[in-house]
Design brief:
Shape: globular
CATH architecture: Alpha-Beta Barrel
Number of helices: 12
CATH topology: TIM Barrel
Strand content: 5-15%
Strand order of the largest sheet: 1-2-3-4-5-6-7-8
Number of strands: 8
Radius of gyration: 18 Å
Order of helices and strands: EHEHEHEHEHHEHEHEHHHH
Protein backbone atom coordinates (compact mmCIF):
# COMPACT_ATOMS: atom_id res chain seq x y z
CA UNK A 1 0.00 0.00 0.00
CA UNK A 2 1.26 3.48 -0.87
CA UNK A 3 1.23 5.72 2.20
CA UNK A 4 2.48 9.07 3.45
CA UNK A 5 2.87 12.31 1.52
CA UNK A 6 1.69 11.93 -2.07
CA UNK A 7 1.96 15.01 -4.25
CA UNK A 8 -0.87 16.07 -6.54
CA UNK A 9 1.73 17.34 -8.99
CA UNK A 10 1.30 20.50 -11.04
CA UNK A 11 1.86 20.29 -14.80
CA UNK A 12 4.42 22.98 -15.70
CA UNK A 13 3.77 24.94 -18.88
CA UNK A 14 5.52 27.64 -20.87
CA UNK A 15 4.01 31.00 -21.76
CA UNK A 16 2.43 29.48 -24.90
CA UNK A 17 0.61 26.83 -22.86
CA UNK A 18 2.85 23.99 -24.01
CA UNK A 19 4.09 21.40 -21.50
CA UNK A 20 7.52 22.23 -20.08
CA UNK A 21 9.11 18.80 -19.82
CA UNK A 22 12.44 20.13 -18.56
CA UNK A 23 10.60 21.71 -15.63
CA UNK A 24 8.64 18.49 -15.12
CA UNK A 25 11.87 16.53 -14.73
CA UNK A 26 13.11 19.08 -12.21
CA UNK A 27 9.90 18.67 -10.20
CA UNK A 28 10.15 14.88 -10.18
CA UNK A 29 13.76 15.09 -8.97
CA UNK A 30 12.70 17.57 -6.27
CA UNK A 31 10.11 15.16 -4.90
CA UNK A 32 12.43 12.18 -4.99
CA UNK A 33 15.05 14.13 -3.04
CA UNK A 34 12.48 15.43 -0.53
CA UNK A 35 11.10 12.01 0.37
CA UNK A 36 7.66 12.35 -1.22
CA UNK A 37 6.02 8.91 -1.20
CA UNK A 38 4.38 9.01 -4.66
CA UNK A 39 3.34 11.36 -7.47
CA UNK A 40 -0.15 11.83 -8.86
CA UNK A 41 0.33 12.89 -12.47
CA UNK A 42 -2.39 14.86 -14.27
CA UNK A 43 -4.95 14.95 -11.52
CA UNK A 44 -6.98 18.06 -10.76
CA UNK A 45 -3.86 19.96 -9.69
CA UNK A 46 -2.18 18.78 -12.91
CA UNK A 47 -4.93 20.48 -14.94
CA UNK A 48 -6.54 17.31 -16.20
CA UNK A 49 -9.67 19.26 -17.13
CA UNK A 50 -7.83 21.42 -19.69
CA UNK A 51 -5.22 19.00 -21.03
CA UNK A 52 -6.14 16.99 -24.12
CA UNK A 53 -5.79 13.22 -24.15
CA UNK A 54 -2.52 13.18 -26.09
CA UNK A 55 -0.86 15.59 -23.67
CA UNK A 56 -2.44 13.80 -20.70
CA UNK A 57 -0.90 10.47 -21.66
CA UNK A 58 2.45 12.00 -22.61
CA UNK A 59 2.77 13.88 -19.30
CA UNK A 60 2.06 10.71 -17.33
CA UNK A 61 4.51 8.67 -19.35
CA UNK A 62 7.24 11.31 -19.15
CA UNK A 63 6.68 11.55 -15.39
CA UNK A 64 7.11 7.78 -15.22
CA UNK A 65 10.27 8.04 -17.32
CA UNK A 66 11.73 10.80 -15.14
CA UNK A 67 10.81 8.88 -11.98
CA UNK A 68 12.89 5.95 -13.27
CA UNK A 69 11.62 3.61 -10.57
CA UNK A 70 12.66 5.98 -7.76
CA UNK A 71 9.10 7.01 -6.82
CA UNK A 72 5.71 5.46 -7.70
CA UNK A 73 3.51 7.31 -10.19
CA UNK A 74 -0.28 7.34 -9.98
CA UNK A 75 -2.06 8.50 -13.14
CA UNK A 76 -5.15 10.63 -13.16
CA UNK A 77 -7.65 8.64 -15.21
CA UNK A 78 -10.96 10.17 -14.23
CA UNK A 79 -13.62 11.42 -16.62
CA UNK A 80 -17.32 12.18 -16.57
CA UNK A 81 -17.65 9.66 -19.39
CA UNK A 82 -17.18 6.06 -18.29
CA UNK A 83 -15.90 5.15 -21.75
CA UNK A 84 -13.21 7.84 -21.58
CA UNK A 85 -12.08 6.71 -18.13
CA UNK A 86 -11.85 3.15 -19.43
CA UNK A 87 -9.77 4.29 -22.40
CA UNK A 88 -7.31 6.07 -20.10
CA UNK A 89 -7.10 3.05 -17.81
CA UNK A 90 -6.24 0.80 -20.72
CA UNK A 91 -3.56 3.21 -21.92
CA UNK A 92 -1.86 3.18 -18.51
CA UNK A 93 -2.06 -0.52 -17.70
CA UNK A 94 1.18 -2.52 -17.96
CA UNK A 95 3.27 0.66 -18.22
CA UNK A 96 4.64 0.78 -14.70
CA UNK A 97 1.98 3.20 -13.47
CA UNK A 98 1.11 2.13 -9.91
CA UNK A 99 -2.61 2.98 -10.03
CA UNK A 100 -5.22 5.22 -11.54
CA UNK A 101 -6.89 8.03 -9.58
CA UNK A 102 -10.43 8.35 -10.86
CA UNK A 103 -12.57 11.31 -9.86
CA UNK A 104 -16.34 11.00 -9.54
CA UNK A 105 -18.06 11.95 -12.81
CA UNK A 106 -18.50 15.71 -12.75
CA UNK A 107 -21.36 17.82 -14.11
CA UNK A 108 -23.74 14.98 -14.98
CA UNK A 109 -24.49 14.21 -11.29
CA UNK A 110 -25.02 10.43 -11.37
CA UNK A 111 -26.96 8.54 -8.71
CA UNK A 112 -25.18 6.34 -6.17
CA UNK A 113 -26.02 3.36 -8.37
CA UNK A 114 -24.59 5.21 -11.35
CA UNK A 115 -21.39 5.84 -9.41
CA UNK A 116 -21.15 2.21 -8.42
CA UNK A 117 -21.63 1.00 -12.00
CA UNK A 118 -19.22 3.64 -13.36
CA UNK A 119 -16.37 2.49 -11.13
CA UNK A 120 -17.24 -1.19 -11.39
CA UNK A 121 -17.11 -0.99 -15.17
CA UNK A 122 -13.77 0.84 -15.11
CA UNK A 123 -12.28 -1.65 -12.65
CA UNK A 124 -13.36 -4.61 -14.75
CA UNK A 125 -12.01 -3.07 -17.97
CA UNK A 126 -8.29 -3.28 -17.20
CA UNK A 127 -5.70 -4.56 -14.76
CA UNK A 128 -4.80 -1.05 -13.56
CA UNK A 129 -5.55 -0.72 -9.82
CA UNK A 130 -8.07 2.04 -9.18
CA UNK A 131 -8.21 4.68 -6.44
CA UNK A 132 -11.59 6.35 -6.06
CA UNK A 133 -11.64 10.14 -5.73
CA UNK A 134 -14.51 11.93 -4.02
CA UNK A 135 -14.45 15.73 -4.19
CA UNK A 136 -18.05 16.98 -4.21
CA UNK A 137 -17.02 20.63 -4.01
CA UNK A 138 -15.72 20.36 -7.58
CA UNK A 139 -17.91 17.67 -9.10
CA UNK A 140 -21.38 18.36 -7.65
CA UNK A 141 -21.77 14.70 -6.67
CA UNK A 142 -20.93 13.05 -3.35
CA UNK A 143 -20.04 9.36 -3.21
CA UNK A 144 -21.49 8.09 0.05
CA UNK A 145 -19.70 5.64 2.38
CA UNK A 146 -22.12 2.83 1.55
CA UNK A 147 -21.20 3.15 -2.14
CA UNK A 148 -17.50 3.20 -1.28
CA UNK A 149 -18.00 0.02 0.75
CA UNK A 150 -19.64 -1.74 -2.20
CA UNK A 151 -16.78 -0.73 -4.47
CA UNK A 152 -14.11 -1.69 -1.94
CA UNK A 153 -15.18 -5.30 -2.34
CA UNK A 154 -13.98 -5.30 -5.96
CA UNK A 155 -10.46 -6.67 -6.33
CA UNK A 156 -9.14 -3.89 -8.55
CA UNK A 157 -10.35 -0.98 -6.39
CA UNK A 158 -7.68 -0.40 -3.76
CA UNK A 159 -8.48 2.87 -2.03
CA UNK A 160 -10.09 6.28 -1.98
CA UNK A 161 -8.98 9.90 -1.97
CA UNK A 162 -11.62 11.49 0.26
CA UNK A 163 -11.58 15.27 -0.20
CA UNK A 164 -14.66 16.43 1.67
CA UNK A 165 -12.54 17.54 4.64
CA UNK A 166 -15.11 15.85 6.88
CA UNK A 167 -13.37 13.64 9.42
CA UNK A 168 -16.65 11.94 10.32
CA UNK A 169 -16.72 10.73 6.71
CA UNK A 170 -13.39 8.99 7.33
CA UNK A 171 -14.80 7.22 10.37
CA UNK A 172 -17.90 6.18 8.44
CA UNK A 173 -15.82 4.66 5.65
CA UNK A 174 -13.42 2.96 8.07
CA UNK A 175 -16.35 1.18 9.69
CA UNK A 176 -17.37 -0.32 6.34
CA UNK A 177 -14.14 -1.34 4.61
CA UNK A 178 -11.28 -3.72 5.35
CA UNK A 179 -7.98 -2.58 6.85
CA UNK A 180 -6.13 -3.06 3.55
CA UNK A 181 -8.32 -0.52 1.73
CA UNK A 182 -6.18 2.61 1.37
CA UNK A 183 -7.62 5.83 2.80
CA UNK A 184 -6.12 9.07 1.53
CA UNK A 185 -7.04 12.61 2.52
CA UNK A 186 -7.56 15.04 -0.33
CA UNK A 187 -7.78 18.04 1.98
CA UNK A 188 -4.49 19.50 3.25
CA UNK A 189 -6.09 21.53 6.02
CA UNK A 190 -7.49 18.42 7.75
CA UNK A 191 -4.89 16.00 6.41
CA UNK A 192 -2.95 15.57 9.63
CA UNK A 193 -6.04 14.78 11.68
CA UNK A 194 -7.07 12.35 8.93
CA UNK A 195 -3.74 10.54 9.38
CA UNK A 196 -3.93 10.55 13.16
CA UNK A 197 -7.40 9.00 12.95
CA UNK A 198 -6.15 6.06 10.90
CA UNK A 199 -5.79 7.38 7.36
CA UNK A 200 -2.87 6.12 5.31
CA UNK A 201 -1.75 9.20 3.42
CA UNK A 202 -2.46 12.66 2.05
CA UNK A 203 -2.74 13.38 -1.67
CA UNK A 204 -1.57 16.92 -1.26
CA UNK A 205 -1.42 20.26 -3.03
CA UNK A 206 0.85 21.73 -0.33
CA UNK A 207 3.47 19.06 -1.04
CA UNK A 208 4.19 20.86 -4.32
CA UNK A 209 5.84 23.68 -2.35
CA UNK A 210 6.73 22.00 0.96
CA UNK A 211 7.71 18.48 -0.04
CA UNK A 212 10.22 17.81 2.71
CA UNK A 213 8.01 19.26 5.43
CA UNK A 214 4.96 17.26 4.34
CA UNK A 215 7.00 14.05 4.12
CA UNK A 216 8.31 14.58 7.64
CA UNK A 217 4.85 15.41 8.98
CA UNK A 218 3.42 12.21 7.53
CA UNK A 219 6.31 10.17 8.91
CA UNK A 220 5.76 11.56 12.40
CA UNK A 221 2.04 10.86 12.15
CA UNK A 222 2.67 7.27 11.07
CA UNK A 223 4.98 6.82 14.06
CA UNK A 224 2.32 8.24 16.42
CA UNK A 225 4.58 11.21 17.12
CA UNK A 226 1.69 13.62 17.28
CA UNK A 227 3.50 16.59 18.84
CA UNK A 228 6.18 16.62 16.16
CA UNK A 229 3.62 16.21 13.39
CA UNK A 230 1.46 19.04 14.76
CA UNK A 231 4.45 21.34 15.08
CA UNK A 232 5.15 20.98 11.35
CA UNK A 233 1.50 21.23 10.40
CA UNK A 234 0.96 24.43 12.38
CA UNK A 235 3.69 26.12 10.34
CA UNK A 236 2.07 24.90 7.13
CA UNK A 237 -1.53 25.89 7.98
CA UNK A 238 -1.30 29.28 6.22
CA UNK A 239 -0.06 27.49 3.10
CA UNK A 240 -2.83 24.88 3.29
CA UNK A 241 -5.31 27.74 3.39
CA UNK A 242 -3.87 30.27 0.94
CA UNK A 243 -3.22 27.74 -1.82
CA UNK A 244 -7.00 27.83 -2.30
CA UNK A 245 -7.63 31.60 -2.39
CA UNK A 246 -8.47 31.02 -6.05
CA UNK A 247 -9.32 27.78 -7.79
CA UNK A 248 -6.62 25.12 -7.54
CA UNK A 249 -4.07 24.99 -9.19
CA UNK A 250 -3.90 28.76 -9.76
CA UNK A 251 -2.25 29.67 -6.42
CA UNK A 252 0.06 26.66 -6.21
CA UNK A 253 1.50 27.30 -9.68
CA UNK A 254 2.21 30.90 -8.69
CA UNK A 255 3.82 29.65 -5.47
CA UNK A 256 5.98 27.13 -7.35
CA UNK A 257 7.20 29.92 -9.60
CA UNK A 258 7.87 32.15 -6.60
CA UNK A 259 9.98 29.39 -5.05
CA UNK A 260 11.93 28.86 -8.27
CA UNK A 261 10.62 25.34 -8.81
CA UNK A 262 9.27 26.34 -12.24
CA UNK A 263 10.00 29.29 -14.52
CA UNK A 264 6.40 30.07 -15.43
CA UNK A 265 3.18 29.80 -13.46
CA UNK A 266 1.14 29.73 -16.66
CA UNK A 267 -2.06 27.73 -17.01
CA UNK A 268 -4.40 26.83 -19.85
CA UNK A 269 -7.66 28.70 -20.25
CA UNK A 270 -10.17 29.01 -18.73
CA UNK A 271 -7.74 29.05 -15.78
CA UNK A 272 -5.84 32.30 -15.39
CA UNK A 273 -2.82 33.44 -13.38
CA UNK A 274 -3.20 34.38 -9.72
CA UNK A 275 -4.74 37.82 -9.24
CA UNK A 276 -2.22 40.49 -8.33
CA UNK A 277 -4.30 41.45 -5.30
CA UNK A 278 -3.96 37.92 -3.88
CA UNK A 279 -0.28 37.37 -4.58
CA UNK A 280 0.83 39.05 -1.32
CA UNK A 281 -1.44 36.66 0.64
CA UNK A 282 0.18 33.59 -0.88
CA UNK A 283 3.66 35.09 -0.46
CA UNK A 284 2.93 35.85 3.19
CA UNK A 285 1.85 32.23 3.75
CA UNK A 286 5.08 30.95 2.20
CA UNK A 287 7.06 33.25 4.50
CA UNK A 288 5.13 32.19 7.61
CA UNK A 289 5.92 28.57 6.76
CA UNK A 290 9.63 29.37 6.38
CA UNK A 291 9.65 28.41 2.71
CA UNK A 292 11.00 31.82 1.63
CA UNK A 293 12.75 34.62 3.51
Amino acid sequence: MLAGSIVALITPMDSAGEIDYQALKKLVDYHVAAGTSAIVSVGTTGESATINVDDHVKVVMKTLEFAAGRIPVIAGNGANSTAEAIALSKLFQNTGVAAGLSVTPYYNKPTQEGLYLHYKTIAESSDLPQILYNVPGRTAVDMLPETVARLAKLDNIIGIKEATGDLQRLADIQALVSDDFALYSGDDETGLDFLLQGGHGVISVTTNVAANEMAQMCQHAAASEEAQARSINEKLLPVHNKLFVEANPIPVKWACQRLGLIQNGDLRLPLTSLSEALQPEVESALKQAGLID
